[in-house]
Amino acid sequence: MHIALLEDEPDLAADVRAILEREGHVVVTFSSGNHIIRGLAKEPFDLLVLDWNVPGPSGLDVLIHVRKELQSAVPVMFLTSNSAEDQIVVALNAGADDYCGKPLRASEFTARLRALERRSHIARVGRTAETIEFDGYQFNEVERCVDMGAEQVLLTEKEFELAKLLFQNLDRPISRSQIMAHVWGREEDVLSRTLDVHVSWLRRKLKLGAGLGGYRLLVVRGYGYRLVKGEEAAV
């Protein structure tokens, strides 16, 4: 993979780069928010690894730029302090796909990146696009987008996996813990608010709210969520 690393501490940047290069990746290191923003305008990357506290625009600012200004769904791994729960929640809610705490543990970091790579289908370069269809919703597994008739909606990796899970379990209640384990690969309290934010985004993007379309994403109080369609969706 071609990876962009945002880290202003030289020693940590060297350590992270070494881990990534041992895995066979090509790494470009950036030491400031402005530096990486300029770099992203010049060349595409398969994955971003962002530290939060850097000179200039923060890692969070870079993430927001990528999601809103560049309209990119490139997978993003955040490096955060283990004690900074608020940072983790904000980063995930802004569109980060995963996070890894500092001080960095090489084995955990590598495992999370491999899992993110598998989920993102990054390794499947050049394959023919595969689609899954659900009565008016066509999920493109490679582009990570959903076609709704004439409208194409680009989703982040987590939004895509969450939406696909819901459609594959149509009319079935899915627990919050099951969703978090499937989409984020872990069950943690810090993810609870993030899940609710992602549900809110999907309701808007895929028209899953009351009166918006043929499907409706319902809350199952004290348990989780349930996607329904047809007459029940209109209730």
From TrEMBL:
<dbReference type="GO" id="GO:0000156">
    <property type="term" value="F:phosphorelay response regulator activity"/>
</dbReference>
<feature type="domain" description="Response regulatory">
    <location>
        <begin position="2"/>
        <end position="117"/>
    </location>
</feature>
<dbReference type="InterPro" id="IPR001867">
    <property type="entry name" value="OmpR/PhoB-type_DNA-bd"/>
</dbReference>
<dbReference type="GO" id="GO:0005829">
    <property type="term" value="C:cytosol"/>
</dbReference>
<dbReference type="InterPro" id="IPR001789">
    <property type="entry name" value="Sig_transdc_resp-reg_receiver"/>
</dbReference>
<dbReference type="GO" id="GO:0032993">
    <property type="term" value="C:protein-DNA complex"/>
</dbReference>
<keyword id="KW-0238">DNA-binding</keyword>
<dbReference type="GO" id="GO:0000976">
    <property type="term" value="F:transcription cis-regulatory region binding"/>
</dbReference>
<feature type="modified residue" description="4-aspartylphosphate">
    <location>
        <position position="51"/>
    </location>
</feature>
<dbReference type="InterPro" id="IPR036388">
    <property type="entry name" value="WH-like_DNA-bd_sf"/>
</dbReference>
<dbReference type="Pfam" id="PF00072">
    <property type="entry name" value="Response_reg"/>
</dbReference>
<dbReference type="GO" id="GO:0006355">
    <property type="term" value="P:regulation of DNA-templated transcription"/>
</dbReference>
<dbReference type="InterPro" id="IPR011006">
    <property type="entry name" value="CheY-like_superfamily"/>
</dbReference>
<dbReference type="Pfam" id="PF00486">
    <property type="entry name" value="Trans_reg_C"/>
</dbReference>
<feature type="domain" description="OmpR/PhoB-type">
    <location>
        <begin position="129"/>
        <end position="229"/>
    </location>
</feature>
<protein>
    <submittedName>
        <fullName>Winged helix family two component transcriptional regulator</fullName>
    </submittedName>
</protein>
<dbReference type="InterPro" id="IPR039420">
    <property type="entry name" value="WalR-like"/>
</dbReference>
<feature type="DNA-binding region" description="OmpR/PhoB-type">
    <location>
        <begin position="129"/>
        <end position="229"/>
    </location>
</feature>
<keyword id="KW-0902">Two-component regulatory system</keyword>
<keyword id="KW-0597">Phosphoprotein</keyword>
